[in-house]
């Protein structure tokens, strides 16, 4: 019986080739796009899935009462270890690290490497697989390291590198040699232990080495909020049970400022990646899932519309089946079988399309999507259920409508649904156009916001700013002097306008903050102000605008500082220039305001411009970057000249750099990916809609052939006939726009609320969406109607 249903279904599809093509094409597009999005979301949700005991793994995250006081990704350094030592019944293991970077060398190979000096528990706590070394005791001593397979290939060209030696340039004690005692297996899936804050770790070192990169015994300093911390809970322990122990430990060991302002939250590692950065990844997944649902829904609506519309061709078949004893259940099964056959044909094509589009779509979403043959069992089951569900949903309504008609009316060739069919068809078209306009308007607003990022006045100039990121970090007077000599030599190049040494560049990652109050203003609450340590060329290199006073120079008093506008307002200073402020911390003391710079966007536009203070490197020799402002059309030649100076001065250091405009663009990588995916979805929406409209119009033309012939005999010309059909769809598109516009306004406005600086709401995107929707539909209808409307009326009237 099943075979007979499938045979009849295939015959029907072959007989109505145009409508079958439209249905298969629409469903194939919808299923392909849904599959691409589903695989992307699945891959995002699988981040950290390769970690051992994942349900028990938690990240310790900071939350401060005062805005911008503490970075959320770091906590008091000894906290995780103390929880394990003092509460072993609650905490099974822990791991702490201070992610940083340094130059590493092997013979004549030099690279900038991402490091994790931290507890030696990392490998065993998270079950990180080794291809070389002992997973139980991966570190032999404090001078041993574990590296990734990629790092081994970069330095040695092979992975069997146990006992080979790498030289790492430390900040405090110069170059140190480390023996390799473990090699991590190449990762097939991202996790937020080996990749922290977007930076993939190359080398793991024992905790004692953190002294070379931060401070001696910092892992024992309760007042140092500096380390990323993880804990593994005992089986059955809930994160709420750690609230009291954490509070007790901080009350016992932390200073009053930390007690008053800092709280610690446990974030599950199974959701940490999705929820970090204000849930940016999770929001992206939700938005893409909704868009994919809309695209698939449109394809299903197309199928239902065309199936109901072409039902007139099958009325006698249905009637004869009923006359010869066919039961309604059998007829319903027949139509569902046809829907499933057509859907599975579309599903087969979608697999082909998926493989063809996978690299391109992966590039759009900045994610490597797996091949179909490497899908997990869960993903295969999801795909089969999706296809079956689409087939059943698409076929249910036509099956029940077509089999419910009265036998006599069927044999006479009359459809029993009458006005209901017309209302349903127009209603479904309105839904389709509404969804298309909704997605289109939201896409336009996403594009406007992304364009706003790149066109808004930033307060600094990012163009032709080359940043060397591999500066050797010898943080003392001698080390600073060496880098300053390179800076000065580079500035003698006519193609270089300026150069500056700094601890940070405007990439959204500042060096922390300090509580500051105006001198004599002890009654005022301290204001947390972000810190920037720079030389005297920073303002000139990045084009910062001075509002008052002047930027400091390398020869200025170490107690001179520069503030931005936001800091002046937050500290309630009168004029700023010449006033004194008091800062706590390592760079603490009393400082005099020398200058005020106009506010500039140091972080993402999701955040308001925060108060900032510039310290001179005379205060402390802290530096990480050498930024160079170029003024040339021959950038390659200038970079070659800079590189020659660099290698002459630092022959054992790599020359690694980036441009500030590229770094700025990477800050909005998620929004850019969303824009590209939304553009693809908008295009697919219109393709599906136009396919459906083409099918409906083609069916209408076939049914109304004689009417058109009569109208032509009575004097109607081609233009009148085309206008007749255009008028029929005008009301549909108009109603769809009126429904979609307010919904799109609310959705776009709420999405833009996540940004402190956002594009304005205007009518322009709505008008553009309306004009394009009308234009595309009108052009399609006019082209389809033209052939019939211009035909000889005699032939039209003879049509059977």
Automatic annotation (TrEMBL):
<keyword id="KW-1003">Cell membrane</keyword>
<feature type="transmembrane region" description="Helical">
    <location>
        <begin position="721"/>
        <end position="743"/>
    </location>
</feature>
<feature type="domain" description="ABC3 transporter permease C-terminal">
    <location>
        <begin position="290"/>
        <end position="401"/>
    </location>
</feature>
<dbReference type="InterPro" id="IPR025857">
    <property type="entry name" value="MacB_PCD"/>
</dbReference>
<dbReference type="Pfam" id="PF12704">
    <property type="entry name" value="MacB_PCD"/>
</dbReference>
<comment type="similarity">
    <text>Belongs to the ABC-4 integral membrane protein family.</text>
</comment>
<feature type="domain" description="MacB-like periplasmic core">
    <location>
        <begin position="20"/>
        <end position="248"/>
    </location>
</feature>
<feature type="transmembrane region" description="Helical">
    <location>
        <begin position="763"/>
        <end position="783"/>
    </location>
</feature>
<keyword id="KW-1133">Transmembrane helix</keyword>
<keyword id="KW-0472">Membrane</keyword>
<feature type="transmembrane region" description="Helical">
    <location>
        <begin position="21"/>
        <end position="42"/>
    </location>
</feature>
<feature type="domain" description="ABC3 transporter permease C-terminal">
    <location>
        <begin position="683"/>
        <end position="792"/>
    </location>
</feature>
<feature type="transmembrane region" description="Helical">
    <location>
        <begin position="335"/>
        <end position="361"/>
    </location>
</feature>
<dbReference type="InterPro" id="IPR050250">
    <property type="entry name" value="Macrolide_Exporter_MacB"/>
</dbReference>
<feature type="transmembrane region" description="Helical">
    <location>
        <begin position="680"/>
        <end position="701"/>
    </location>
</feature>
<feature type="transmembrane region" description="Helical">
    <location>
        <begin position="381"/>
        <end position="408"/>
    </location>
</feature>
<feature type="transmembrane region" description="Helical">
    <location>
        <begin position="286"/>
        <end position="315"/>
    </location>
</feature>
<feature type="transmembrane region" description="Helical">
    <location>
        <begin position="429"/>
        <end position="447"/>
    </location>
</feature>
<protein>
    <submittedName>
        <fullName>ABC transporter permease</fullName>
    </submittedName>
</protein>
<feature type="domain" description="MacB-like periplasmic core">
    <location>
        <begin position="436"/>
        <end position="632"/>
    </location>
</feature>
<dbReference type="InterPro" id="IPR003838">
    <property type="entry name" value="ABC3_permease_C"/>
</dbReference>
<keyword id="KW-0812">Transmembrane</keyword>
<dbReference type="Pfam" id="PF02687">
    <property type="entry name" value="FtsX"/>
</dbReference>
